[in-house]
Structure formats: structure tokens, C-alpha cells
Amino acid sequence: MRDTPDRGDHEQPPQDRTEGHETSIDANGSPAWVDTQDLSNNEFPLTRLLIIIGSLAFTLFVSLIDQNSVSTALPEIAKDLNAFDSISWVGTSFLIANTSFQLINGRLSDIFGRKACLLICLALLAIGDLLCGFAKSAIQLYIFRGLAGIGAGGINSLTMIIFADLTTLQQRGKYQGLLETNIALGNGVGPLIGGAFAQSSATWRWAFWFVVPVTCLAAFGILSAVPKTQVQGSIKEKILLTDFWGMILSLGAAIIILIPVSGGGSTYEWNSAIVISLLCVGGILVIVFILVEWKVARVPVIPFRVFERTSAKILFTHNFITGIVYYMDLYYIPLYYQIVLGYAPLMSGVLVLPLILSFSASSTTAGLILSKIGRCNPVVRIGYLLWTAGAGGRIAFGENTSLGVIVVCLMIEGLGVGFSFQPVMIALLSNTKKEDRAVVTGLRNFLRTMGGAVGLAIGAAVLNNLLTANIPSHLAAKDAPMELASMLNTLSPSDKAVVVAAYMKGLKVVFCLGCPLMGICLLSSAFLTDIPLATAYATNSMSQGPACRNEDVEKTACHRRDDVTEPAVAQTPNETS
């Protein structure tokens, strides 16, 4: 990186300019206006700040309700649409779309504005769910669910990006509880809503239609509460800087890899020609994407500088691993309740609440501790330790495990999740440059969701293989485990006992995976560099980018901050104008 001379006390940070149709790129490979959406240098009244963050939190809550409400309604959907052999694609199509678009949302919001992108994503979610409710065939449902997945993926990333714009690293822990509580509640309430509609006369279609008016309410909140930021540059300049090749290649690679990963072992055999071909093509696209980002893109979707620090590499890997474990929990614990322990869909959703509520409570506590001590690593390590212990307890789950033991294990694991998720995000931001916060947030969400896809694929493969090996021959002709599960109560007592035992064998293997995976996160956290949050951006800017004085870096991260076009926003007295 080039060095810049020291500036006088009253000299402004360097400003990149555009002349004619040429848009300048700064020393870090970002457009001159990429960081104009930083709102953390504004002094919001506490009430106003809480309203803004509350609107973001409610929006995230709506997205997660939509994401989780379908799981408990799947048996009814499969029965109504006669889609037992392919019903897993309700979740798969959503997950593929959600994951694939997470990667590009950060950079798109840098270029076209956070608020506009978030409102578009809310519209996509509402339209997708409305159409899902009217679906007349399984294929229609899978397509519309994919459309909703694009919107949900954008919402999940953009709410966190705007939250990062609003707060400094030191403040983030204090307010993160609002976001994390809504994440936990969305994960917990979603299955209850889906199960309630599936068991009522309203039918499963209302599990989708219910989300539409709530999404409109969230959009109104965002439109009213979130301050509008002015993104500099003309439309032509923005289009010229958009890394279309990078976006196309990243989307193509993610989709082509996720299709066999999600469908392998269930829809397709792992050794089938289509799975092998898609994985090979996806791998080639990943290589081409890396070359384009490295050598061609002016403003890459993923600037490689975000991987410069060893701690950043470790934390990105942790997000992938925790995605595997957390998504397997959300999917396979309700399955364990319903099939092995015999609870109804609604009750299985209720019994996941110990995990969700402890997650919610501990995330708030972790945020307060984080703000108090100003360091991430101690909080992250406590989270990984608790999560590893809770995941280890799940190894003991069986057909006769008492509900008390299950609840205690889930509560311990929930405490670990709450102490891990947002502190790891803040640790990532403290190990990267301030102007990369949108890209880092999108990449983190992409890796966690990709981990979830891999985790669900591993679980499905294990479950299918053990079911095939252990169920009676006269039941083995059934097309799918979901169909077998839906007819469990119609089987003879002896057949039912064999099927339940086969499911338990598969679930036992799935549950055993969580402890060693979280153990890897716990052990590798010893190699993380503990950067004080108060100086993190200054340290990163001085070590990775143009030379700046500490006070300039803390205020601007070597970029100017654009004015917020809302009169209610006051600027800090010491800000250089």
C-alpha cells in the first residue's frame, strides 16, 4: 500500500474525485463514495437510536419467522401437494437462493444504498410468500420459495450492515441484544406459527400468507425510521464500478454447488453423474471467480484484503462451522421430538424454546460484557466452551431420555450460541477495515448459511443411509423418510418401534457431530488476536491501508462521511466538516 504524508490538524482526509465519466478508486480498491453510509459519527438521541435499531430488529424477526415457520408444516404440505419424494426442496430452494445472494448484498448496498436495497428485499419476501400461498403444485411452491429466499437473504445481511453503520465497535455490544433477541424469537416463534397453521382449519397456506402483512409493517418501519444516506456518484458511475462478472460467477458457483450439496443422498445419489458434474463445474467457477476478483474487478465483490489477518481467516472458518451445527439443531431437534418422542408439530416447536430463550438472554448479557471490557476474545471463548458442552450433552439423547435432561442441554447450548454469534461478528469487524464492513457482514452470513446447507446435507445423508439399512423390507419401498414419518401412527406397534429405532440411530450420529465441530472452534480460538475495540479500526487502517493519524481514522476510517438527509440527526461537536 502507498503511504500518504501526514496532514495538518485542520486538513481533511483525502477525498477521491470523479471527473467526467471516470470514477476514482481509492488505495484500498473501493470507490470514493463507498463509505458514505457510515452513520456512527452522528449523535442520535437515545430514543431515536432505539427506534431505528428496533425497526431493524423487527425486520430481522419477520425474516426469521418466515425462514423457520415452514419446517413444522412440511408433512401437511407434502400430503396436500402429493410431494413426499421432493418436499425437502421447499427448504432447499429457499436455502440456495438465500445463501447465494448473501455474498453480493454487501457490495450492492455499498453502491446503490442500504435502505433502497433493504426495501427491495422486503418486497421480494412479501411477493414470494404471497405466491407460495397460492401455489397449486410442488414445482410452483419451490420456485416461489426461492424468490422469498432472495429477499430473506438480503434482509438478514442488510439489517446487520445498517446496524454496523449506526454504531461504533464499542457501542455495538450494548445494543446487539435487540437484534439477537429478535433472531432468537424468530427462530423460536416461526416453528410454532407453522405448526399451529398446519394443525388448524386455516391450512398450511396461511403459514406463508401470514408473513405478507407483517413484512409490509416492517417495510413501513424501515421507511419511516431508518435515516436516508446519500450515496455519491451517478447511475452510470455506479454501473461502471459494479463487478457484474464477479456477481454472476459467485451466484453461479454458489447455486451450482448448493444443488448437489442439498440434494445429494436424497434427490440424487452422491455418485450420480449429475452430482459429480455439478460439483466439478461449481469448482471451476470458484477458481474463475477468484481470478476475476484478483486481476480484473475494479471494485471486487470480495476484496482479498479481508483475509489478510490470521484472526479473520479463523473467524470466517468458525462461521462456517457454527452454521453447520446451528442449522442441524434447528432442523433435527424438532424431528427428534416428533418422530422419536412422539410430540405433535406445535409441541415440538414449544420444546425448542429452551435453546431459543437462553440464546436470547445470553446474547444480551454477552453484549453488555463486550461493551464493558472492550474485547471480544474472552466472550467468544466462553461461548464456544458452553456450546461445546451443550452439544456434548446431546450425545446422550435417546428414546427414553427425560425431558429435563433435554431442556438442560439445550439451555447450555443456547447460552453458548448467544455468547458466540454476535461477538464473533464484532471480532471479525475489529480484524478488518471499516469500509469493508458491508462486505464482511455479507461474507460472514454467506459462510454461516453455506455451513447450514452442508450440515443439513450431512444430516440427510446420514439419516437416509441408516433408515435404508435398518427399516423392514416391506417399508423400505417408501419413497422418502418424510412419507414414512407422516404414516408412523398407522404402523403396527412392532413396525413403529423399528422405524423409531432406525431414526434414533441416524439422529444419534447427527447429534454426535456437534461436539467435535464446536471443539475445533474452541481450540482454534486460542490463536485469535485480541484487538481492543476502541482502537481496532485505527489499528487496521494503519497496518493495512493508507497512513492516517489515529484521531482521523477513528472519525472517518480514511474516508469522508456523507451528510444524512434527515433533520433529526445531529452531528458530533468534534466532527470535522
Q: Nutshell version of this structure?
A:
Helices cover 68% and strands 1% of the residues. The protein has 577 residues and is an all-alpha fold. Belongs to the major facilitator superfamily.
Strand order of the largest sheet: 1-2
Helix content: 55-70%
Determine the N-to-C terminus distance: 27 Å
Number of domains: 2
CATH superfamily of the largest domain: MFS general substrate transporter like domains
Arithmetic mean of pLDDT: 80
Tell me the strand percentage band: under 5%
For the report, how would you describe the main beta sheet? 2 strands, antiparallel
CATH class of the largest domain: Mainly Alpha
- Count, helices: 22
Principal-axis shape equals: globular
CA radius of gyration is 24 Å
Query: What is the CATH-assigned architecture of the largest domain?
Result: Up-down Bundle
Q: Please give the number of β-strands.
A: 2
The run of helices and strands is EHHHHHHHHHHHHHHHHHHHHHHE
Main structural class? mainly alpha
